[in-house]
Amino acid sequence: MTKQQDLTIHFMPYSEIEKEDSTGRIKKILNIILQNKIVIVQGRLKAEEESRLIGDTMVLIDHVKGFKGVELAVVSSSDKLGIFDKLKHNLARMLVGQQDALTIIGPANLVKEIKRNPQKIELFLKK
Amino acid sequence: MIELIKRLTKKFFNIFGKQGNVKLGFYGPPNAGKTSLANRICQDWLGEDIGTVSKVPHETRSVQFKERVVIEKGKKKVEFNLIDTPGIATKIDFEDFMKFGMKKPEAQSRAKEATQGIIEAIKWLEDIDAVIVVLDSSLNPYSQVNITIIGNLVARKIPVLIVANKIDLRKSDIKKIKAAFPEYEVVGVSARTGENMENFYEELFKLVKKAN
Q1: What are the boundaries of each domain within chain B?
Q2: Fold topology of B18-211
Q3: How many domains does chain A have?
Q4: Does the pLDDT value for residue B15 go beyond 50?
Q5: What is the per-residue burial (b if ≥16 Cβ within 10 Å, else e) of B115-149?
Q6: pTM listed for this prediction
Q7: Which of B90, B92, B97, B119 would best serve as a mutation to test chain A binding (most A beta carbons within 10 A)?
């Protein structure tokens, strides 16, 4: 008999993190990651939040037994826009937040690698 | 409010230029060759190394400094403080170090130091004036760590130069790095062999001038 393994993907809509501050957003994401689930966030974190997420992940590696970190990737429609379209996109982002991106974060002991190339995402899981 | 005061104070002092106190950070993922490049610069201009290099990832596990590095070429001269940071990663697994022949306690200790080093490197982003992002040109540049580092520097309005290192390798592909980061200056070098360092120094002059 082969051992059955569960894989849970948690979808986090933008509305769920919209009103949170940086600390709240990162805490929410990492709490789910610690439950060994993959999180797909509608939208993307700010640049400083992404680096803070990495910093907080390092703190968790030191303090949570068996936790080895995260794999993360962002796909965004703004990656291949021209200058004028980027301006429009940035204006829209200021008004409604960056909802047209997806952030995928998974625990490193579950997700081996996320390849982003650039409009395609490949998720490689550990055996 | 405090942030505003900080920015105004920084701007006030910047009016007079940094007078050789530019803090030039070396950032990038592990094993991209940050310390190799920093060593190459320090050897070329000071005749000494800044740190040790190794094939084992996370060899640099704390921020290393070299003060008052002066580069002169003809009439051009720049001076900066070189800050070599540990490679930024999103995961650290001590078992990966054991694949390089380390015993478990040594691997665990290295992993702990590596996590601390990453935290330290991220903190330093707040206090850096210009950055050289070192990438391995033989690897896929679309990694989120690379994007996060560069995104952070852009958000902080820190001048950036991307170095596509390891151009001596057969798999090296600078075009891929240029395509991934079209808005930035990319210069290919081999820190190991010294290939194309002349062009690198030309770009370095421009970068440090932007930070002054």
Answers
A1: 18-211
A2: Rossmann fold (3.40.50)
A3: 1
A4: no
A5: bbbbbbbbebbeebbbbbbbbbbbbebbbbbbbbb
A6: 0.86
A7: B90
